[in-house]
Structure formats: structure tokens, C-alpha cells
Amino acid sequence: MADLPDKGSAFIDWYLAVVEAADLTDKRYPVKGMNVWTTYGFRARRNLDAVMIREIEATGSDAVEFPTLIPANEFAKEKEHIKGFDNEVYWVTKGGATPLDVPLVLRPTSETAMYPVFALWVRSHRDLPLNVYQIVNTFRYETKTTRPFVRVREIHFFEEHTCQVDEDRATERVGSNLAAFRKMADAFGLPYLTTRRPEWDKFAGAHYTIAFDIPLAGGRTLQLGSVHHYRENFSRPYGIRYEAPDGSQRYVHQTTFGLSERLLGAIVAVHGDSKGAVFPSAIAPYEVVVIPIPGSDAGPGPLDTARAVADRLRRAGRRVHLDAGDERPGAKYYRWELHGVPLRVEIGRREAEARTVTVADRLGRKGNVPLDRLETGVAERLAEFDRALAEQARASFARSVAAARTLDELPGSATVRVIGWCGSEECGHRVEAAIDGALLGTLEEALPMPLANPERCIACGKSDGVRPAIAGRPM
Ligand SMILES: [Zn+2]
């Protein structure tokens, strides 16, 4: 098999080659931007969903599922929202040969599907908070070049929608979403940037938007997801009101939290290397691959031991693949490295006789685990691997983000930049022009590394109200 393109100098080519060679996607489907989930990719997706579900449900959210189609009149109720999606939605206008009385929108996100029903569910302060989420496919007519997992037209979408009694409770819900995302990203070993988007770049209909991005090579960034505070922007047009304890009628304050399979793309992009994908154990389709090494005089020992080892690890809850095919061990090592499996267990005659196995992790570290403590030994190795992978990602993050003090440093910047920004739109646009990208927003959470805060606005030089902000080139 041909070598992969160089990650540093040809990042996009490298990414496309890895997702294909690692069997995460099949790009041959005839509709652009619509992903075929292969068996291996689907395993990763299911693990991604499991982490999202675990962390959001820990914060008191329950799953629902709303229909895929939204009536045009409901979709049009919040004006900014429909304006934001005007050029992105798919329409269903006929049932068979009959034109529909009310055209339907294939959901691009589910505010306008859920909120007419929320208006029926929410009656009293006792019905609040209403915290629900769904994981469904959504559709957006993406006009830029599509990329597997990263820019698609059919999106595997996680969306939480909540109704709160007032603005402060909604602000608290935003905080709880940020904390939940921290735990998800920690499970994947992903360091990221949390910023409050500038007014001109917030979600259509939101009071404010907080987004998560990762820095990539060459000063590029990739948005992983976002949290929005809606205030009463949707509850008023959709009539979501409740009776307060004093008998008055009040509108709820709403929030949403959105994530997608971009997280899978980000995990490939951040952790992958010259040998292919590298998966943290939380998302790895297989955490362990077991490879028997039947030498010419090895007899049945290695294969029998390998079967027993795979069986024991499965019983211990591990996702395991036993590769007992007749290829050379070297070809198997190569394939499972390409596929990003965290841990390889090798069993030859020597191991079978010594009642031990050789383990090698995807970062190239090797050791032995005695069979009598197989389960704990493998668990320890996986935990060490996850720690080392997260540390490597933090080091790479620190190299990808640097401060800039003057606009001259921004053109062609090879890193994402931390700058001072006074908050004015004019200065923001000057920054965007200089970096030929976007002002992602003001930092909402500390960076995972020390960096002195800028004292002056990079564009106008003022120090009043200056806050650290992030500028980069969104992928
Ligand atoms: Zn300024």
C-alpha cells in the first residue's frame, strides 16, 4: 500500500487518505456530502454517541426524538433563524405527484420542530426546567467543498434543547453544557478553544453563542460544536410560556447545545500520524487487536491462547478483534496501526509457553503482561496510552497557538493567534482581513497552557475593555 501524504505539509490530503484507508467512510456514494457509515466507522460513531449520552444525561437531560420534516410556516416563525438557514435547507414540496399544501423543510436543526410542541408541554413552573436532547440526522445544503465528517450535507447531529424559568437559569445551563463538553473532550484527549462568538458570527436567533474549536496545522481551526443562549428569542414567537408561582404568565429562556460527527473528524485530525489513525480508547472501534504468531513449529499453542485471551478481554467489557487470518504478522501490524487500534496483543509460542503476552500500544511502546493478570494489565496499558496521547495532543496544541501583538503578524500566520480585542466590530473586521480568516471570539475559558494576556487591542491600540480573543482560518 502506498504511503500516506505528509500530515504537516499536505494536511487535507493526509486527512482524506487516512479516513479512507482506515475504512471509516466510503466516499463512492453518488450524493455529495452524504456519508456511508461503514462497519468500522459506525463502531466509532456508536462510541462517540455513548460518550455524549453519558455526559449529557449526567447533567439531567433526557432523550427525545422529533420528526425529520418541519412545516414551512413553523420554520418561518423566528425571522433571524430562517434568514440564517435560507440558503441551506432542503425542501419537500410534493407527496407523490401532489404538491403539498404546506411545503416541508428537512430539518437543518430542530428548534422549529420542537418549539411548537414545547409550547404544549410547558404550562407551569413545575414543568421546568425542560432539558431534552436528541441524536438524529439533519440536513444542510453545504455549498463549499464537502469533507468526510467535517463538512457534510447529512449531519449526524447531537442537539440539546432546554427551557428554563429565567435568564440566569439559562446562563447556568450554558455553564453546565460547557462542563459536560469538557468531560467529553477529555475522554477523547482533545484540547480545544472556548470562545464567545462575535455578534456578526453568532447562531441565527441566538442572544449569544459560545463555540468550541481546535487548532489545526497552518493556522487553521475546526469548530467542534456550540452552545447558545436564546433568551426569549424563540419562546415569544412560539408561545412557550408558563405560570409562575405568583400566577403571572412568563416566557421561558432557552438554550441549545450542538455537536456532530465532526468530533470524529477532529479526533482523526489531531491524533493521527504518518502511520494512519490513532484512536483514544473511548472511541476506538476496537480497543485491542489480538494477533497470534504461528511460527512453523508453533503448533496450536499461540492460536488457542489468542482465542482465550480475546475471550477473556471481551468478558471484561473490552472491544476486541482477533485477527487469526493467514497473513504475515507484519502485514497485520501495519493494517491495525493504520486503523488506529490503541493496543496490539501478540502471542507467539514463547508467549504461549511462558503464560504471558506481548503488548504494543499505538504510540510504539511495548511490554509484557502475564496471563494471570491479563484484564488489569490491559486496562492499565490502555489508561497509560490515553494519558500519553492526550499529553501529545496538548503539546501539539501549544505549538499551534501563539500570541500576536500587531496586525502585521497575522497575514499568512502559521499558527492560530491570541490577540487583544477592544470589542468593536470595526477592529474585529480589520483582524479578519489581516489574517484572511475569522475572529473566532473572546476567550471564554482559559487556554490549556500559560500565555500572557494581551493588554492592547491589536487593531486600534486601546487598552480599555480589551479582552483576549482568538483569530484563525476556519477549515
Ligand atoms: Zn480596537
What layout of secondary structure does this protein have?
Elements: H1 11-21, E1 25-26, E2 36-37, H2 39-57, E3 62-63, E4 69-71, H3 72-75, H4 79-85, E5 91-95, E6 98-106, H5 111-121, E7 130-139, E8 154-164, H6 167-187, E9 193-196, E10 208-215, E11 220-231, H7 235-238, E12 241-243, E13 249-251, E14 253-260, H8 262-271, E15 288-292, H9 301-315, E16 320-322, H10 329-338, E17 343-347, H11 349-354, E18 356-361, E19 366-370, H12 374-400, E20 401-403, E21 416-421, H13 425-435, E22 438-443, E23 467-474
Parallel strand pairs: 3-7, 11-23, 15-16, 15-17, 20-21
Antiparallel strand pairs: 1-2, 4-6, 5-6, 7-8, 8-14, 9-10, 9-22, 10-11, 11-14, 12-13, 17-18, 18-19, 21-23, 22-23
Give a short overview:
The chain has 475 residues and is an alpha+beta fold. The protein has helices at 11-21, 39-57, 72-75, 79-85, 111-121, 167-187, 235-238, 262-271, 301-315, 329-338, 349-354, 374-400, 425-435; strands at residues 25-26, 36-37, 62-63, 69-71, 91-95, 98-106, 130-139, 154-164, 193-196, 208-215, 220-231, 241-243, 249-251, 253-260, 288-292, 320-322, 343-347, 356-361, 366-370, 401-403, 416-421, 438-443, 467-474.
